[in-house]
């Protein structure tokens, strides 16, 4: 099976080369036969890569240590589900996953309903751009990072999987993150196709909307899973350290979020055409950049792979793709002109443009801080790392401005300008948010202006969403004459895009409150105690009951059993542990957490001394669970918006409105 997969992987780049050549010739000469053969070549690439991926899965499941990748990342005592997840544990396997996903997405685009709307020629131009990305990754995997290479003398057992990756979160986090990374190639391809053919310049953001939103949802879910993994697995008590690889996923998320908002302006007004092309391109390049940072090892990160020779290839591909987009954009510059007419500072369009600037500022600041060590080494001769305080100091005020702007945008209905256009219910929502901020300042001693804005801005989002939803439901209720409940359900279902966005915004407010509570009001206690002794932290009393040594399939565990009381009531038994893996030089920390909506009790076992004293580190992290609930609200809102229909023909509708017909 491995030899079949290896041959398929070697052949795939040749089909990718042919597809790019045939599609380019077909577009240039308007040859339907060439276009058809190019599209079928892309299908052949998907089949060949699927065979290679199947061969790797078979080699992993059967523990074929004759395959170098299997010997490096698995062992006989590794549970099967972690063995299969080793597919994306290493550099070569993760790049094969990238290649398989992009070839799959190419096939989905070729067979989707969009083809019937825009015609064979346009969809072939889309396939050409995706084919170029396929060609790059197929060549890279076949020639440089091949996971199916065999070794002459197979070992009796493999080296095993990194213990940090033996966590349920790591089964789902990388492939979901990759869905987001790879998915952004499709809206980018729609933008390039629109420029190449000078067609669908107005409509391409709407054609690629589901792909943009799907990729954004996947990227959001992947980032949230990564945060949760960091929180429960790394044992440091945090969830975001502004690590280079963490930042690498956040940069395209910022730009992709800006694109989702900017595309709405183009859909409704026809403006920002060039800006949207730039955002689609920058989001795609950001995903390639994130892959480069993780794979090249140029920056130190707990998430990154070891250093490799792949860096120059990724840099070359990014430079070529950016140059190509700039050249095509300048060639078609006249088609990208579109005047943005706003109704003043408090118009819907103006605020969304400001939204784009702020998201772009966040992406730029994060990019500068992340890559600063590379530039300092290049120009000063030494790597100077930028730590979390820089990112906190620069990004916090921008993020808080965005939080306030999110609430204000909800207050202002489409096609109304100025403060006079704001409904009375929205003004009540603004008053409520101000009262919430003042109340929080009085009750929780929130004297910092940043903290006040965080509470007030989050309250503004929730209140404005509720007020606007109630207003829309009552308008429909008066029109239809039905009950308010029926009108509410119909209103939400008929405009899933809008109300999905509302749910996303409520999730964002929850995340901000969770970050505020868990970072500002966190409390920590470190103490060495013996069995039977107690330690207090906040409202909890934690008693060490016993120390137990147990065996797991592939590790030895030393576990401390802790009895937790709140007042006089027993509320939990927690078992933080240290796991000793044969493949690891030092023990791995396994934390135990009591999680409630009000906050977490986070316990870490630091080891046992010779005299029997147990080192414990305890944290109380108020409201941290609001981050996880808020993240899933964001994902759920995105999925709900994803179910809304694609709305083409907006240019004609805008022309009708302008002429007074529609």
From TrEMBL:
<feature type="transmembrane region" description="Helical">
    <location>
        <begin position="247"/>
        <end position="265"/>
    </location>
</feature>
<feature type="transmembrane region" description="Helical">
    <location>
        <begin position="209"/>
        <end position="227"/>
    </location>
</feature>
<feature type="transmembrane region" description="Helical">
    <location>
        <begin position="277"/>
        <end position="298"/>
    </location>
</feature>
<dbReference type="GO" id="GO:0020037">
    <property type="term" value="F:heme binding"/>
</dbReference>
<dbReference type="InterPro" id="IPR003567">
    <property type="entry name" value="Cyt_c_biogenesis"/>
</dbReference>
<comment type="similarity">
    <text>Belongs to the CcmF/CycK/Ccl1/NrfE/CcsA family.</text>
</comment>
<feature type="transmembrane region" description="Helical">
    <location>
        <begin position="395"/>
        <end position="414"/>
    </location>
</feature>
<keyword id="KW-1133">Transmembrane helix</keyword>
<dbReference type="GO" id="GO:0015232">
    <property type="term" value="F:heme transmembrane transporter activity"/>
</dbReference>
<dbReference type="GO" id="GO:0017004">
    <property type="term" value="P:cytochrome complex assembly"/>
</dbReference>
<feature type="transmembrane region" description="Helical">
    <location>
        <begin position="310"/>
        <end position="331"/>
    </location>
</feature>
<feature type="domain" description="Cytochrome c-type biogenesis protein CcmF C-terminal">
    <location>
        <begin position="316"/>
        <end position="645"/>
    </location>
</feature>
<keyword id="KW-0201">Cytochrome c-type biogenesis</keyword>
<feature type="transmembrane region" description="Helical">
    <location>
        <begin position="122"/>
        <end position="145"/>
    </location>
</feature>
<feature type="domain" description="Cytochrome c assembly protein">
    <location>
        <begin position="88"/>
        <end position="296"/>
    </location>
</feature>
<dbReference type="InterPro" id="IPR003568">
    <property type="entry name" value="Cyt_c_biogenesis_CcmF"/>
</dbReference>
<keyword id="KW-0472">Membrane</keyword>
<protein>
    <recommendedName>
        <fullName>Cytochrome C biogenesis protein</fullName>
    </recommendedName>
</protein>
<dbReference type="Pfam" id="PF16327">
    <property type="entry name" value="CcmF_C"/>
</dbReference>
<feature type="transmembrane region" description="Helical">
    <location>
        <begin position="626"/>
        <end position="643"/>
    </location>
</feature>
<dbReference type="GO" id="GO:0005886">
    <property type="term" value="C:plasma membrane"/>
</dbReference>
<dbReference type="InterPro" id="IPR002541">
    <property type="entry name" value="Cyt_c_assembly"/>
</dbReference>
<keyword id="KW-0812">Transmembrane</keyword>
<keyword id="KW-0997">Cell inner membrane</keyword>
<feature type="transmembrane region" description="Helical">
    <location>
        <begin position="426"/>
        <end position="444"/>
    </location>
</feature>
<feature type="transmembrane region" description="Helical">
    <location>
        <begin position="40"/>
        <end position="61"/>
    </location>
</feature>
<feature type="transmembrane region" description="Helical">
    <location>
        <begin position="176"/>
        <end position="197"/>
    </location>
</feature>
<feature type="transmembrane region" description="Helical">
    <location>
        <begin position="450"/>
        <end position="470"/>
    </location>
</feature>
<feature type="transmembrane region" description="Helical">
    <location>
        <begin position="352"/>
        <end position="375"/>
    </location>
</feature>
<feature type="transmembrane region" description="Helical">
    <location>
        <begin position="81"/>
        <end position="110"/>
    </location>
</feature>
<comment type="function">
    <text>Required for the biogenesis of c-type cytochromes. Possible subunit of a heme lyase.</text>
</comment>
<feature type="transmembrane region" description="Helical">
    <location>
        <begin position="502"/>
        <end position="521"/>
    </location>
</feature>
<keyword id="KW-1003">Cell membrane</keyword>
<dbReference type="InterPro" id="IPR032523">
    <property type="entry name" value="CcmF_C"/>
</dbReference>
<dbReference type="Pfam" id="PF01578">
    <property type="entry name" value="Cytochrom_C_asm"/>
</dbReference>
<feature type="transmembrane region" description="Helical">
    <location>
        <begin position="6"/>
        <end position="28"/>
    </location>
</feature>
């Amino acid at each position: 099976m491995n030899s079949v997969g290896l041959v398929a992987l070697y052949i795939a780049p040749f089909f990718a080369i042919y597809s790019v050549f045939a599609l380019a010739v077909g577009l240039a000469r308007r040859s339907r036969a060439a276009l058809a053969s190019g599209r079928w070549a892309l299908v052949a690439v998907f089949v060949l890569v699927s065979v290679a991926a199947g061969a790797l899965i078979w080699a992993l499941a059967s523990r074929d240590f004759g395959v170098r990748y299997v010997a490096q990342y698995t062992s006989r005592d590794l549970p099967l589900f972690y063995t299969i997840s080793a597919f994306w544990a290493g550099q070569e396997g993760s790049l094969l996953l990238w290649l398989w996903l992009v070839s799959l997405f190419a096939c989905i685009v070729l067979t989707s309903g969009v083809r019937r709307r825009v015609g064979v020629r346009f969809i072939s131009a889309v396939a050409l751009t995706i084919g170029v990305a396929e060609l790059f990754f197929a060549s890279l995997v076949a020639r440089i990072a091949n996971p199916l290479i065999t070794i002459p003398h197979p070992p009796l057992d493999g080296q095993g999987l990194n213990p940090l990756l033996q966590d349920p979160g790591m089964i789902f986090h990388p492939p979901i993150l990759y869905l987001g990374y790879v998915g952004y190639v499709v809206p980018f391809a729609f933008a390039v196709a629109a420029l190449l053919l000078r067609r669908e310049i107005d409509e391409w953001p709407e054609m690629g909307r589901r792909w943009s939103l799907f990729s954004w949802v996947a990227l959001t879910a992947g980032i949230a899973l990564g945060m949760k993994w960091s929180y429960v697995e790394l044992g440091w008590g945090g969830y975001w350290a502004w690590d280079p690889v963490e930042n690498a996923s956040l940069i395209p998320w910022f730009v992709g979020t800006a694109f989702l908002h900017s595309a709405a302006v183009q859909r409704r007004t026809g403006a920002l055409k060039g800006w949207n092309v730039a955002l689609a391109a920058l989001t795609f390049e950001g995903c390639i950049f994130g892959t480069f940072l993780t794979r090249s090892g140029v920056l130190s990160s707990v998430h990154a792979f070891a250093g490799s020779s792949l860096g120059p290839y990724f840099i070359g591909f990014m430079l070529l793709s950016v140059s190509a987009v700039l050249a095509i954009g300048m060639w078609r510059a006249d088609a990208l002109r579109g005047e943005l007419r706003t109704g003043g500072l408090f118009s819907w369009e103006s605020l969304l443009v400001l939204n784009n600037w702020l998201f772009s500022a966040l992406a730029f600041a994060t990019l500068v801080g992340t890559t600063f060590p590379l530039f300092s080494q290049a120009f000063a001769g030494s790597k100077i790392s930028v730590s979390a305080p820089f990112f906190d100091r620069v990004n916090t005020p921008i993020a808080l401005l965005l939080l306030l702007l999110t609430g204000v945008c909800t207050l202002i209905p489409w096609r109304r300008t100025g403060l006079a256009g704001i409904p009375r219910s929205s003004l009540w929502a603004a008053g409520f948010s101000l009262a919430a901020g003042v109340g929080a300042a009085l009750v929780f001693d929130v004297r910092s202006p940043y903290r006040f804005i965080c509470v007030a801005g989050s309250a503004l989002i929730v209140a404005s969403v509720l007020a606007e939803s109630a207003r829309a439901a009552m308008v429909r209720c008066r029109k239809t004459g039905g009950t308010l409940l029926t009108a509410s359900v119909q209103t939400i279902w008929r405009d899933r895009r809008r109300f999905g966005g509302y749910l996303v915004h409520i999730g964002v407010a929850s995340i901000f409150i969770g970050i505020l509570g868990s970072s500002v009001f966190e409390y920590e206690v470190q103490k060495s105690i013996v069995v039977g002794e107690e330690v207090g932290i906040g409202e909890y009393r934690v008693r060490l009951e016993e120390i137990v040594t147990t065996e797991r399939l592939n590790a030895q565990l030393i576990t401390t059993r802790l009895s937790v009381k709140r007042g006089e009531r027993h509320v939990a038994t927690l078992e933080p542990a240290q796991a000793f893996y044969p493949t690891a030089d030092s023990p791995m920390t396994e934390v135990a957490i009591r999680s409630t909506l009000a906050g977490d009790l986070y316990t870490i076992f630091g080891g046992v001394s010779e005299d029997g004293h147990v080192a414990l580190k305890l944290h109380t992290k108020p409201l941290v669970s609001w981050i996880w609930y808020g993240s899933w609200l964001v994902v759920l809102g995105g999925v709900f918006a994803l179910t809304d229909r694609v709305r083409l023909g907006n240019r004609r509708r805008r022309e009708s409105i302008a002429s007074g017909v529609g």
